[in-house]
Amino acid sequence: MITKELICVNCPMGCRLKVEMEGKEILSITGNTCPRGAEYAAQECVRPMRILTSTVKIDHGTHRVLPVITDKAIPLDLMFKAMDEVRTVRVTAPVAEGQVLVHDLIGSGADLIASRSMEKN
Amino acid sequence: MRNYQAVIIGGGSAGLSAAVTLKKNGIEDIVVIEKDMEPGGILEQCIHNGFGLQTFKEQLSGPAYAERYVRMARELNVDIKLNTMVTKLTADRHISYVNPSEGAVTVSADAVILAVGCYERARGAINITGTRPAGVYTAGQAQRYLNIEGYLVGKKVFILGSGDIGLIMARRMTLEGAEVLGVAEIMPYSNGLPRNIKQCLEDFGIPLYLSHTVTKTYGRDRLEGIDIAQVGPDRNPIEGTTQHFDVDTLLLSVGLIPENHLADEAGIRMDPVTRGPVVDDYYMTSADGIFACGNGLHVHDLVDFVSLQAERAALGAVKYLQREGKARGNTIKVRPGEGVSYTVPACVHPEDPSGNVEFFFRVRKPMDEAVLEIRSGDKVLRTLKKRKLMPSEMERALITEKEIAALREEVTIAVREVQA
After folding, report:
1. Chain A contacts of B147, Cβ < 8 Å?
2. Measured distance CA(A90)–CA(B249) in Å, rounded
3. Nearest to B279 by CA among B292, B261, B262
């Protein structure tokens, strides 16, 4: 049996998790204060997933760039590939928070959405 | 002169939460004064996720979290003056501000809530020898350039200080195509949240050099390189440990300080440790009717607690306005004891308690196993076992209204390390 110590990245509480594994099978997860922590630990041992946040170019907005976020976590190993696509996105104001800008970003199943509203300048 | 029931200085997370709370409690004649072109404060540039799990039970980005409060404020018809800078505050609650449409104006208020946020320690505060080229930024400054203005400030980056903004910028600049060569931290432990060490550095293989600092900068017009060196327990560089890095950018993430000049000029008593005003259990400062909350009071690590604290400060102001005066009776001091660097609030009113009081405090050094002890004179009010305490993580402890009403002697909050 091996024991892995992880830090949950779901929220700033940063719970210290302990995962006991036998081969690829997870025997126990402890240290989490909410169900998200257990889900995170189980996933982290298979393929780490992260929310991606970045900005995209926006035309006629009150700022030059618009903050964006994936609506669910995507594989950590695909972050740079995802960023290559994020860099090509260009939107026009006005934009509403939560508006989908890219469906199924690089086939990850996650949508890229606006993380704030931005008025037309 | 125009008189308001309440003036809130700052339209960030603290100011918006305070304004919403005042309105909900029937204080109608209020104004929020914000220097930026939009409300939201520093949240607007914190585009990463992790905000709001306590407040909204959701994981939001900074701008999305701010938008929730802006929407609540709009729905309650909160008047927000944008592009407006407060230039002076007096102890008798006169507020002078300036903006392009009104010019220079002075107003008065029955209550003032300081929600002014904090600023970053800059190069001048940390004595790095060498040249003074372009390319040395505070982490928050680089964050604003990138996330709001849309400019990446450099391609080869080193970061001094393991504060959260620096860690978040390490990931952010890496994703934008910059190469982040490392993060140096003068202390033997990280000053950022553990989750940020994991997801901002370890995820991207960025080395963290603990007990290291930047000793020299090179370059005439633009930064060309830096030296780092290991430091001893006295935090002075150790000879022969110097390493050189060729970089065009150095980010500084070396601490945040409450923005305190308005309070200072008003003669409000300041806490030398938090460097914010000293407040009582109603979040009132030493000046009658002037309240403080958020990062302008003491630097927080979670915005959710800023919103919560601002709510309490606003409730303090509501009580003050309703009874036309401050809390009654004597005050009992609450002090940091062994192992604790500060406590907020700094005193309570046993004859007129504000309710249950949650104290915010930080430990002085990392501790694996510890016991938290709250005592009043010889009487122990609380002992609690605590695990994995870090100076970078704010701790909280509650004293009930009933316990406060029974207090006769000074309260100390102490944390003692237990050897496992």
Report:
1. 55, 65, 67
2. 28
3. B292
Residue ending a domain, among B254, B269, B292, is: B254
Contact A72, A112 (CB under 8 A): no
B57 pLDDT above the threshold of 70: yes
B50 interfaces chain A, CB cutoff of 8 Å:
yes
- CA pseudo-torsion sign B80, B298, B366, B368: negative
Task: Provide ipTM, 2 decimals.
Answer: 0.91
Q: What's the CATH architecture for A53-114?
A: Roll (3.10)
* Peptide bond connecting B258 to the previous residue in cis, omega within 30 degrees of 0: no
The set of residues, in sequence order, having a beta carbon less than 8 Å from that of B236 and lying 6+ positions away, is: none
Question: Chain B residues with CB inside 8 Å of A51's CB?
Answer: 49, 59
Domain extent for B178: 122-254
Q: With beta carbons less than 8 A apart as the criterion, state whether B83 and B92 touch.
A: no
User: Which chain A residue lies closest to B40 (C-alpha atoms)?
Assistant: A116
The rounded distance, in Å, linking the Cα atoms of B314 and B284 is 10
Q: Residue B63: closest CA among chain A residues belongs to which residue?
A: A116
Give the mean model confidence (pLDDT) for residues A55-69.
97
Compute φ and ψ for B196, nearest 5 degrees: -75, -30
In this structure, the answer to whether residues B309 and B394 fall within a common structural domain is no
**Spatial separation of the C-alpha atoms in residues B286 and B91, rounded to whole Å:** 9
Q: Yes or no: say if B401 and B355 are a contact pair by the CB < 8 Å rule.
A: yes
Answer for the pair A4, A26: CB distance below 8 angstroms, yes or no.
Answer: no
SS3 state of residue B106: strand
User: What's the pLDDT tens digit per position in A1-44?
Assistant: 889 889 888 877 788 899 999 888 889 999 998 888 999 999 99
For chain B, what percent of residues have pLDDT higher than 90? 89
Task: Using the predicted structure, report yes or no on whether residue B420 has a pLDDT greater than 80.
Answer: no
pLDDT digits (tens, 9 = 90+) for B381-418: 999 999 888 888 899 999 999 999 999 999 999 999 99
**For the domain that residue B138 is a member of, what is the CATH number?**
3.50.50.60
